[in-house]
Amino acid sequence: MLQTTWIAIVLGVWSSMYLLDAFLKSHKSWSRHYIHFLDRTGLAISICQLRWYSTFLNRTFVRIGQWRPNFLKVWFTCGVVFGLLAMLLSMFLLTLLVINTFRKQPVEQQVLTPVMPGINLPASQVSYYLLTLLVCGILHEVGHAVAAVREQVRVNGFGLFLLILYPGAYVDLYTDHLQVVSPIRQLRIYCAGVWHNFVIVIFSVIMLVLLPYLWIPMYTSGNAVAVTYVTQNSAVSGPRGLSVGDSITSISGCRVRNLDDWTSCISVSMRQSSLGHCMAIDLVKSLDTKDRNLSISGKLESLDCCNGTSNTHLCFRFHVKTSPENKYACLPARSTTDRPMCKFQSDCYIPSVDMVCVYPAVDNHTRLLQVHHSRKPPLLFLGHPLDLHYSVSLSNFVPRFSFVPAGFPDVVETFSKYLISLSGALVILNVVPCYALDGQWICSAFIELSLRSTVPDRDTRGIIFTVILLYGTGLLFVNVVIAMWTLFT
Protein backbone atom coordinates (compact mmCIF):
# COMPACT_ATOMS: atom_id res chain seq x y z
CA MET A 1 0.00 0.00 0.00
CA LEU A 2 1.27 3.48 -0.86
CA GLN A 3 2.55 5.72 1.93
CA THR A 4 0.01 8.40 1.01
CA THR A 5 -2.77 5.82 1.40
CA TRP A 6 -1.56 4.91 4.90
CA ILE A 7 -1.38 8.58 5.84
CA ALA A 8 -4.90 9.17 4.54
CA ILE A 9 -6.23 6.18 6.50
CA VAL A 10 -4.55 7.29 9.75
CA LEU A 11 -5.74 10.87 9.41
CA GLY A 12 -9.21 9.66 8.49
CA VAL A 13 -9.47 7.43 11.55
CA TRP A 14 -8.27 10.15 13.93
CA SER A 15 -10.53 12.78 12.35
CA SER A 16 -13.53 10.45 12.66
CA MET A 17 -12.74 9.70 16.31
CA TYR A 18 -12.32 13.39 17.17
CA LEU A 19 -15.52 14.43 15.38
CA LEU A 20 -17.46 11.56 16.98
CA ASP A 21 -16.14 12.55 20.41
CA ALA A 22 -17.13 16.18 19.86
CA PHE A 23 -20.58 15.16 18.60
CA LEU A 24 -21.30 12.87 21.56
CA LYS A 25 -20.17 15.54 24.05
CA SER A 26 -22.41 18.19 22.49
CA HIS A 27 -25.52 16.05 21.90
CA LYS A 28 -28.16 16.70 24.55
CA SER A 29 -29.42 13.12 24.79
CA TRP A 30 -26.07 11.35 24.91
CA SER A 31 -23.60 13.85 26.38
CA ARG A 32 -24.27 13.04 30.05
CA HIS A 33 -23.96 9.28 29.55
CA TYR A 34 -20.93 9.65 27.30
CA ILE A 35 -19.03 11.95 29.69
CA HIS A 36 -19.88 9.61 32.55
CA PHE A 37 -18.48 6.71 30.51
CA LEU A 38 -15.24 8.64 29.86
CA ASP A 39 -14.86 9.53 33.54
CA ARG A 40 -15.52 5.96 34.64
CA THR A 41 -13.07 4.39 32.19
CA GLY A 42 -10.40 7.11 32.33
CA LEU A 43 -10.45 7.63 28.56
CA ALA A 44 -9.82 10.98 26.89
CA ILE A 45 -9.77 11.86 23.19
CA SER A 46 -8.05 14.88 21.69
CA ILE A 47 -6.55 15.75 18.32
CA CYS A 48 -4.56 12.68 17.16
CA GLN A 49 -4.29 11.46 20.74
CA LEU A 50 -6.05 8.84 22.85
CA ARG A 51 -5.35 8.68 26.60
CA TRP A 52 -6.21 6.24 29.39
CA TYR A 53 -5.66 7.17 33.03
CA SER A 54 -6.36 5.08 36.14
CA THR A 55 -5.49 4.66 39.79
CA PHE A 56 -5.85 0.90 39.46
CA LEU A 57 -2.08 0.26 39.74
CA ASN A 58 -1.45 2.56 42.71
CA ARG A 59 -1.65 -0.25 45.27
CA THR A 60 0.74 -2.35 43.19
CA PHE A 61 3.25 0.51 43.14
CA VAL A 62 2.94 0.85 46.90
CA ARG A 63 3.57 -2.86 47.47
CA ILE A 64 6.62 -2.89 45.23
CA GLY A 65 7.98 0.41 46.62
CA GLN A 66 7.73 -0.85 50.19
CA TRP A 67 9.37 -4.21 49.42
CA ARG A 68 12.90 -4.35 50.83
CA PRO A 69 13.43 -0.58 51.08
CA ASN A 70 17.20 -0.87 51.68
CA PHE A 71 17.66 -2.88 48.49
CA LEU A 72 15.52 -0.41 46.53
CA LYS A 73 17.55 2.47 47.94
CA VAL A 74 20.77 0.90 46.64
CA TRP A 75 19.05 0.00 43.36
CA PHE A 76 17.84 3.52 42.62
CA THR A 77 21.09 5.07 43.87
CA CYS A 78 22.86 3.01 41.19
CA GLY A 79 20.34 4.58 38.82
CA VAL A 80 21.46 8.04 39.92
CA VAL A 81 25.10 7.23 39.19
CA PHE A 82 24.17 5.80 35.81
CA GLY A 83 21.87 8.70 34.95
CA LEU A 84 24.53 11.33 35.63
CA LEU A 85 27.19 9.44 33.69
CA ALA A 86 24.76 8.85 30.85
CA MET A 87 23.96 12.57 30.74
CA LEU A 88 27.64 13.47 30.33
CA LEU A 89 28.14 10.77 27.70
CA SER A 90 25.02 11.75 25.79
CA MET A 91 25.98 15.43 25.74
CA PHE A 92 29.47 14.51 24.56
CA LEU A 93 28.21 12.26 21.74
CA LEU A 94 25.62 14.74 20.49
CA THR A 95 28.12 17.62 20.63
CA LEU A 96 30.70 15.55 18.76
CA LEU A 97 28.15 14.72 16.08
CA VAL A 98 27.32 18.40 15.52
CA ILE A 99 31.02 19.37 15.39
CA ASN A 100 31.82 16.61 12.88
CA THR A 101 28.85 17.59 10.76
CA PHE A 102 29.96 21.22 10.52
CA ARG A 103 33.47 20.01 9.73
CA LYS A 104 31.93 17.94 6.92
CA GLN A 105 33.11 14.80 8.66
CA PRO A 106 29.79 13.27 9.80
CA VAL A 107 29.85 9.97 11.59
CA GLU A 108 28.58 7.00 9.58
CA GLN A 109 25.82 6.11 12.05
CA GLN A 110 23.53 8.74 13.48
CA VAL A 111 23.10 8.71 17.25
CA LEU A 112 19.43 9.73 17.02
CA THR A 113 17.67 8.58 13.86
CA PRO A 114 13.91 9.19 13.61
CA VAL A 115 12.14 5.91 12.89
CA MET A 116 9.40 6.39 10.30
CA PRO A 117 7.27 3.45 9.10
CA GLY A 118 7.51 2.98 5.36
CA ILE A 119 10.69 5.08 5.07
CA ASN A 120 13.41 3.53 7.22
CA LEU A 121 11.23 0.92 8.96
CA PRO A 122 9.88 -2.07 6.98
CA ALA A 123 6.12 -2.43 7.15
CA SER A 124 6.56 -6.04 8.32
CA GLN A 125 8.35 -4.83 11.48
CA VAL A 126 6.05 -1.98 12.49
CA SER A 127 4.44 -4.23 15.12
CA TYR A 128 7.85 -4.91 16.71
CA TYR A 129 8.58 -1.20 16.82
CA LEU A 130 5.25 -0.17 18.37
CA LEU A 131 5.25 -3.02 20.91
CA THR A 132 8.83 -2.18 21.92
CA LEU A 133 7.91 1.48 22.40
CA LEU A 134 5.00 0.47 24.61
CA VAL A 135 7.04 -1.96 26.74
CA CYS A 136 9.94 0.47 27.15
CA GLY A 137 7.57 3.32 27.99
CA ILE A 138 5.65 1.31 30.59
CA LEU A 139 8.80 0.00 32.34
CA HIS A 140 10.30 3.50 32.22
CA GLU A 141 7.28 5.01 34.01
CA VAL A 142 7.00 2.09 36.43
CA GLY A 143 10.56 2.92 37.49
CA HIS A 144 9.51 6.50 38.30
CA ALA A 145 6.44 5.28 40.20
CA VAL A 146 8.25 2.69 42.35
CA ALA A 147 11.08 5.11 43.13
CA ALA A 148 8.53 7.75 44.12
CA VAL A 149 6.85 5.37 46.57
CA ARG A 150 10.27 4.45 47.97
CA GLU A 151 11.02 8.14 48.54
CA GLN A 152 7.56 8.75 50.08
CA VAL A 153 6.17 10.74 47.15
CA ARG A 154 2.54 9.98 46.41
CA VAL A 155 1.57 8.46 43.06
CA ASN A 156 -1.72 9.91 41.82
CA GLY A 157 -2.18 7.55 38.88
CA PHE A 158 -0.77 5.83 35.83
CA GLY A 159 -1.76 6.19 32.20
CA LEU A 160 -1.21 5.08 28.61
CA PHE A 161 -1.53 7.13 25.45
CA LEU A 162 -1.52 6.71 21.70
CA LEU A 163 -0.16 9.69 19.75
CA ILE A 164 -1.06 9.16 16.07
CA LEU A 165 0.60 5.71 15.80
CA TYR A 166 3.11 5.93 18.63
CA PRO A 167 2.17 4.42 22.02
CA GLY A 168 3.57 5.55 25.36
CA ALA A 169 2.97 5.71 29.11
CA TYR A 170 3.10 8.32 31.87
CA VAL A 171 2.89 8.47 35.66
CA ASP A 172 1.24 11.26 37.64
CA LEU A 173 3.18 12.16 40.81
CA TYR A 174 2.06 14.52 43.56
CA THR A 175 4.07 17.64 42.75
CA ASP A 176 4.05 19.16 46.26
CA HIS A 177 5.60 16.02 47.74
CA LEU A 178 8.17 15.84 44.97
CA GLN A 179 9.34 19.42 45.44
CA VAL A 180 9.94 19.18 49.19
CA VAL A 181 12.08 16.02 49.26
CA SER A 182 15.88 16.37 49.18
CA PRO A 183 17.74 16.64 45.84
CA ILE A 184 19.27 13.16 46.17
CA ARG A 185 15.81 11.65 46.65
CA GLN A 186 14.57 13.63 43.67
CA LEU A 187 17.45 12.24 41.63
CA ARG A 188 16.49 8.68 42.55
CA ILE A 189 13.01 9.35 41.20
CA TYR A 190 14.07 11.26 38.08
CA CYS A 191 16.81 8.79 37.10
CA ALA A 192 14.69 5.68 37.71
CA GLY A 193 13.19 5.78 34.22
CA VAL A 194 16.42 5.82 32.21
CA TRP A 195 17.94 3.37 34.70
CA HIS A 196 15.18 0.88 33.93
CA ASN A 197 15.67 1.47 30.20
CA PHE A 198 19.34 0.60 30.63
CA VAL A 199 18.40 -2.53 32.58
CA ILE A 200 16.17 -3.52 29.66
CA VAL A 201 19.17 -3.21 27.34
CA ILE A 202 21.35 -5.39 29.60
CA PHE A 203 18.61 -7.99 29.99
CA SER A 204 18.02 -8.11 26.20
CA VAL A 205 21.74 -8.54 25.49
CA ILE A 206 21.89 -11.43 27.95
CA MET A 207 18.83 -12.96 26.27
CA LEU A 208 20.47 -12.77 22.83
CA VAL A 209 23.55 -14.54 24.17
CA LEU A 210 21.52 -17.27 25.89
CA LEU A 211 18.89 -17.83 23.19
CA PRO A 212 20.80 -20.54 21.25
CA TYR A 213 21.03 -22.57 24.44
CA LEU A 214 17.45 -21.94 25.54
CA TRP A 215 16.06 -23.32 22.25
CA ILE A 216 17.92 -26.66 22.47
CA PRO A 217 14.96 -28.65 23.92
CA MET A 218 12.62 -27.54 21.10
CA TYR A 219 14.87 -26.68 18.14
CA THR A 220 17.97 -27.95 16.35
CA SER A 221 20.58 -25.81 14.63
CA GLY A 222 23.67 -26.24 12.48
CA ASN A 223 22.23 -28.88 10.12
CA ALA A 224 19.57 -27.02 8.12
CA VAL A 225 17.46 -23.87 8.00
CA ALA A 226 13.72 -23.72 8.67
CA VAL A 227 11.16 -21.95 6.49
CA THR A 228 9.24 -19.41 8.59
CA TYR A 229 7.35 -17.58 5.82
CA VAL A 230 6.52 -18.15 2.15
CA THR A 231 5.40 -15.28 -0.06
CA GLN A 232 1.97 -15.94 -1.47
CA ASN A 233 1.73 -16.61 -5.23
CA SER A 234 5.51 -16.81 -5.49
CA ALA A 235 7.45 -19.39 -7.51
CA VAL A 236 8.00 -21.54 -4.40
CA SER A 237 4.44 -21.50 -3.05
CA GLY A 238 1.72 -24.00 -3.79
CA PRO A 239 1.07 -27.67 -3.00
CA ARG A 240 4.43 -28.81 -4.39
CA GLY A 241 6.35 -25.82 -3.08
CA LEU A 242 7.81 -24.93 0.27
CA SER A 243 5.73 -24.66 3.44
CA VAL A 244 6.29 -23.08 6.83
CA GLY A 245 8.23 -25.53 8.98
CA ASP A 246 10.13 -27.20 6.13
CA SER A 247 13.86 -27.62 6.73
CA ILE A 248 16.10 -26.85 3.75
CA THR A 249 19.34 -28.87 3.61
CA SER A 250 20.88 -28.03 0.21
CA ILE A 251 20.51 -26.11 -3.05
CA SER A 252 21.71 -28.05 -6.12
CA GLY A 253 24.42 -29.82 -4.17
CA CYS A 254 25.41 -26.75 -2.10
CA ARG A 255 25.08 -27.67 1.57
CA VAL A 256 22.88 -25.38 3.69
CA ARG A 257 23.55 -25.57 7.44
CA ASN A 258 22.66 -22.01 8.44
CA LEU A 259 21.56 -18.67 7.02
CA ASP A 260 25.11 -17.77 5.98
CA ASP A 261 25.30 -20.98 3.93
CA TRP A 262 21.94 -20.17 2.36
CA THR A 263 23.14 -16.73 1.26
CA SER A 264 26.43 -18.19 0.02
CA CYS A 265 24.67 -20.89 -2.01
CA ILE A 266 22.38 -18.29 -3.61
CA SER A 267 25.45 -16.21 -4.52
CA VAL A 268 27.25 -19.23 -5.99
CA SER A 269 24.22 -20.13 -8.11
CA MET A 270 24.14 -16.57 -9.48
CA ARG A 271 27.81 -16.62 -10.45
CA GLN A 272 27.80 -20.08 -12.00
CA SER A 273 25.65 -21.36 -14.81
CA SER A 274 23.14 -24.13 -14.13
CA LEU A 275 24.73 -27.51 -13.55
CA GLY A 276 23.95 -30.39 -15.86
CA HIS A 277 23.01 -34.00 -15.24
CA CYS A 278 24.59 -37.16 -16.59
CA MET A 279 22.42 -39.27 -18.88
CA ALA A 280 23.00 -42.00 -21.42
CA ILE A 281 22.46 -40.75 -24.97
CA ASP A 282 20.06 -43.62 -25.64
CA LEU A 283 17.98 -42.61 -22.63
CA VAL A 284 17.92 -39.01 -23.83
CA LYS A 285 16.58 -40.08 -27.20
CA SER A 286 13.95 -42.34 -25.64
CA LEU A 287 12.67 -39.63 -23.25
CA ASP A 288 12.82 -36.76 -25.74
CA THR A 289 9.35 -35.49 -26.63
CA LYS A 290 10.52 -32.62 -28.81
CA ASP A 291 8.80 -32.17 -32.13
CA ARG A 292 11.09 -33.90 -34.64
CA ASN A 293 10.25 -31.34 -37.31
CA LEU A 294 11.31 -28.41 -35.10
CA SER A 295 14.35 -26.61 -36.45
CA ILE A 296 16.57 -25.14 -33.72
CA SER A 297 19.58 -22.90 -34.20
CA GLY A 298 22.58 -23.88 -32.11
CA LYS A 299 23.38 -20.19 -31.49
CA LEU A 300 20.35 -19.66 -29.27
CA GLU A 301 21.10 -19.60 -25.56
CA SER A 302 17.53 -19.88 -24.33
CA LEU A 303 14.66 -21.59 -26.13
CA ASP A 304 11.62 -23.73 -25.63
CA CYS A 305 12.08 -26.90 -27.61
CA CYS A 306 9.14 -28.35 -25.67
CA ASN A 307 6.97 -25.73 -27.40
CA GLY A 308 5.20 -24.95 -24.09
CA THR A 309 3.15 -28.15 -24.25
CA SER A 310 3.97 -29.50 -20.76
CA ASN A 311 4.61 -28.15 -17.27
CA THR A 312 6.64 -31.22 -16.35
CA HIS A 313 9.15 -31.08 -19.22
CA LEU A 314 12.03 -28.69 -19.88
CA CYS A 315 14.33 -28.09 -22.79
CA PHE A 316 17.90 -29.37 -22.25
CA ARG A 317 20.97 -28.96 -24.46
CA PHE A 318 23.90 -31.33 -24.86
CA HIS A 319 26.84 -32.21 -27.11
CA VAL A 320 27.54 -35.40 -28.96
CA LYS A 321 30.93 -36.47 -30.24
CA THR A 322 29.84 -36.56 -33.86
CA SER A 323 28.66 -32.93 -34.01
CA PRO A 324 30.12 -29.69 -32.65
CA GLU A 325 26.69 -28.02 -32.51
CA ASN A 326 24.33 -28.05 -29.55
CA LYS A 327 21.63 -30.66 -29.52
CA TYR A 328 18.33 -30.15 -27.74
CA ALA A 329 15.87 -32.49 -26.11
CA CYS A 330 12.56 -32.01 -24.30
CA LEU A 331 13.01 -34.10 -21.18
CA PRO A 332 10.99 -34.62 -17.97
CA ALA A 333 12.54 -32.15 -15.56
CA ARG A 334 12.18 -34.14 -12.35
CA SER A 335 13.56 -37.48 -13.55
CA THR A 336 16.38 -35.67 -15.38
CA THR A 337 17.47 -33.65 -12.35
CA ASP A 338 17.45 -36.82 -10.24
CA ARG A 339 20.49 -37.97 -12.23
CA PRO A 340 24.06 -37.31 -11.01
CA MET A 341 25.12 -33.69 -11.46
CA CYS A 342 27.92 -32.66 -13.80
CA LYS A 343 29.72 -29.49 -14.73
CA PHE A 344 31.69 -30.79 -17.71
CA GLN A 345 31.16 -33.56 -20.21
CA SER A 346 34.11 -35.46 -18.70
CA ASP A 347 32.22 -35.75 -15.39
CA CYS A 348 29.87 -38.28 -17.01
CA TYR A 349 32.39 -40.86 -18.19
CA ILE A 350 31.23 -44.48 -17.87
CA PRO A 351 33.07 -47.23 -19.78
CA SER A 352 31.16 -48.78 -22.68
CA VAL A 353 28.27 -46.27 -22.27
CA ASP A 354 27.78 -43.22 -24.46
CA MET A 355 27.06 -40.55 -21.80
CA VAL A 356 26.25 -36.85 -22.19
CA CYS A 357 25.87 -33.97 -19.74
CA VAL A 358 22.49 -32.32 -20.38
CA TYR A 359 22.16 -28.66 -19.33
CA PRO A 360 18.95 -26.63 -18.92
CA ALA A 361 18.49 -24.45 -21.99
CA VAL A 362 17.94 -21.17 -20.15
CA ASP A 363 19.20 -17.59 -20.45
CA ASN A 364 22.16 -16.15 -18.57
CA HIS A 365 20.05 -15.04 -15.58
CA THR A 366 17.81 -18.07 -15.16
CA ARG A 367 18.85 -21.13 -13.15
CA LEU A 368 17.32 -24.53 -12.58
CA LEU A 369 17.88 -25.27 -8.88
CA GLN A 370 17.07 -28.26 -6.74
CA VAL A 371 16.01 -27.25 -3.25
CA HIS A 372 16.24 -30.27 -0.95
CA HIS A 373 13.97 -29.99 2.06
CA SER A 374 12.28 -32.15 4.65
CA ARG A 375 9.49 -33.17 2.31
CA LYS A 376 10.22 -35.30 -0.75
CA PRO A 377 10.69 -34.86 -3.66
CA PRO A 378 12.97 -31.78 -3.81
CA LEU A 379 11.61 -28.49 -5.09
CA LEU A 380 12.60 -27.62 -8.67
CA PHE A 381 13.04 -23.87 -9.00
CA LEU A 382 13.36 -22.27 -12.43
CA GLY A 383 14.14 -18.55 -12.37
CA HIS A 384 16.55 -15.99 -11.00
CA PRO A 385 18.13 -17.15 -7.70
CA LEU A 386 17.24 -13.83 -6.04
CA ASP A 387 13.56 -14.63 -6.60
CA LEU A 388 14.10 -17.75 -4.54
CA HIS A 389 15.97 -15.78 -1.90
CA TYR A 390 13.24 -13.16 -1.46
CA SER A 391 10.32 -15.60 -1.68
CA VAL A 392 11.00 -17.17 1.71
CA SER A 393 12.01 -16.16 5.22
CA LEU A 394 14.29 -18.58 7.03
CA SER A 395 15.57 -19.31 10.52
CA ASN A 396 18.66 -21.05 11.86
CA PHE A 397 16.44 -22.96 14.30
CA VAL A 398 14.60 -26.02 12.98
CA PRO A 399 11.67 -27.28 15.13
CA ARG A 400 12.13 -30.73 16.65
CA PHE A 401 8.35 -31.29 16.83
CA SER A 402 5.53 -30.43 14.45
CA PHE A 403 3.59 -28.44 17.08
CA VAL A 404 6.54 -26.10 17.74
CA PRO A 405 6.20 -22.78 15.81
CA ALA A 406 8.99 -22.38 13.27
CA GLY A 407 9.35 -18.60 13.51
CA PHE A 408 9.19 -18.15 17.29
CA PRO A 409 12.99 -17.96 17.88
CA ASP A 410 13.32 -15.24 15.25
CA VAL A 411 10.41 -13.31 16.77
CA VAL A 412 12.10 -13.35 20.18
CA GLU A 413 15.47 -12.44 18.66
CA THR A 414 14.05 -9.56 16.63
CA PHE A 415 12.10 -8.24 19.62
CA SER A 416 15.24 -8.41 21.78
CA LYS A 417 17.18 -6.42 19.18
CA TYR A 418 14.45 -3.79 19.08
CA LEU A 419 14.51 -3.57 22.86
CA ILE A 420 18.26 -2.97 22.77
CA SER A 421 18.15 -0.29 20.09
CA LEU A 422 15.02 1.59 21.16
CA SER A 423 15.54 1.37 24.91
CA GLY A 424 19.15 2.51 24.43
CA ALA A 425 17.96 5.39 22.26
CA LEU A 426 15.44 6.39 24.95
CA VAL A 427 18.30 6.54 27.47
CA ILE A 428 20.31 8.86 25.24
CA LEU A 429 17.28 11.01 24.48
CA ASN A 430 15.83 11.31 28.01
CA VAL A 431 19.02 12.19 29.87
CA VAL A 432 19.73 15.23 27.70
CA PRO A 433 18.95 18.38 29.76
CA CYS A 434 16.13 19.48 27.48
CA TYR A 435 12.72 20.98 28.15
CA ALA A 436 10.00 18.38 28.94
CA LEU A 437 12.47 15.48 29.19
CA ASP A 438 13.78 13.70 32.28
CA GLY A 439 17.14 15.37 31.75
CA GLN A 440 15.62 18.74 32.67
CA TRP A 441 14.68 17.56 36.17
CA ILE A 442 17.83 15.45 36.60
CA CYS A 443 19.95 18.49 35.82
CA SER A 444 17.93 20.72 38.17
CA ALA A 445 18.19 18.28 41.09
CA PHE A 446 21.91 17.67 40.47
CA ILE A 447 22.66 21.42 40.47
CA GLU A 448 20.82 21.78 43.76
CA LEU A 449 22.72 18.82 45.22
CA SER A 450 26.19 19.81 44.05
CA LEU A 451 26.15 23.63 44.04
CA ARG A 452 23.96 24.54 46.99
CA SER A 453 26.97 24.85 49.33
CA THR A 454 29.37 26.50 46.86
CA VAL A 455 26.80 28.73 45.11
CA PRO A 456 24.37 29.75 47.90
CA ASP A 457 22.51 32.29 45.75
CA ARG A 458 19.39 30.58 44.35
CA ASP A 459 19.13 32.95 41.39
CA THR A 460 22.70 32.19 40.33
CA ARG A 461 21.99 28.47 40.42
CA GLY A 462 18.88 29.17 38.37
CA ILE A 463 20.94 30.99 35.73
CA ILE A 464 23.39 28.07 35.53
CA PHE A 465 20.50 25.65 35.14
CA THR A 466 18.87 27.81 32.43
CA VAL A 467 22.11 28.01 30.42
CA ILE A 468 22.62 24.24 30.57
CA LEU A 469 18.98 23.65 29.68
CA LEU A 470 19.12 25.98 26.68
CA TYR A 471 22.31 24.33 25.47
CA GLY A 472 20.86 20.82 25.83
CA THR A 473 17.61 21.79 24.10
CA GLY A 474 19.43 23.42 21.21
CA LEU A 475 21.86 20.50 20.96
CA LEU A 476 19.04 17.99 20.74
CA PHE A 477 17.16 20.11 18.20
CA VAL A 478 20.22 20.40 15.95
CA ASN A 479 20.83 16.65 16.13
CA VAL A 480 17.23 15.91 15.16
CA VAL A 481 17.53 18.31 12.20
CA ILE A 482 20.78 16.62 11.12
CA ALA A 483 19.20 13.19 11.42
CA MET A 484 16.14 14.25 9.40
CA TRP A 485 18.34 15.84 6.76
CA THR A 486 20.42 12.68 6.50
CA LEU A 487 17.28 10.54 6.29
CA PHE A 488 15.68 12.43 3.41
CA THR A 489 18.79 13.28 1.37
Structure description:
The protein has 489 residues and is of the alpha+beta class. The strands form four sheets. Strands 6, 7, 8, 14, 15 and 16 form a six-stranded antiparallel sheet that branches. A hairpin with a 2-residue loop joins β10 and β11. α3 packs across α5 and α5 crosses α12. The radius of gyration is 33 Å and the shape is elongated. About 1% of the residues have low confidence.
End-to-end distance, in Å? 23 Å
The biggest sheet, with number of strands, parallel, antiparallel or mixed sense and barrel status, is:
6 strands, antiparallel
Shape, principal axes of CA atoms: elongated
Please, what is the average pLDDT? 85
Protein traits:
489 residues; 6-stranded antiparallel beta sheet; alpha+beta; elongated; 5-stranded antiparallel beta sheet
What is the strand and helix layout of this fold?
Elements: H1 3-26, H2 31-41, E1 43-46, E2 49-54, H3 58-65, H4 69-102, H5 126-150, E3 155-163, E4 166-173, H6 175-180, H7 183-214, E5 219-220, E6 225-230, E7 247-251, E8 254-255, H8 259-271, E9 276-280, H9 281-287, E10 313-320, E11 323-332, H10 333-337, E12 341-342, E13 355-360, E14 367-373, E15 379-383, H11 385-391, E16 392-395, E17 398-399, H12 408-430, H13 438-451, H14 458-488
Antiparallel strand pairs: 1-2, 2-3, 3-4, 5-17, 6-7, 6-16, 7-8, 7-14, 9-12, 9-13, 10-11, 10-13, 14-15
Helix pairs in contact: 1-2, 3-5, 4-7, 4-14, 5-7, 5-12, 7-12, 7-13, 8-11, 13-14
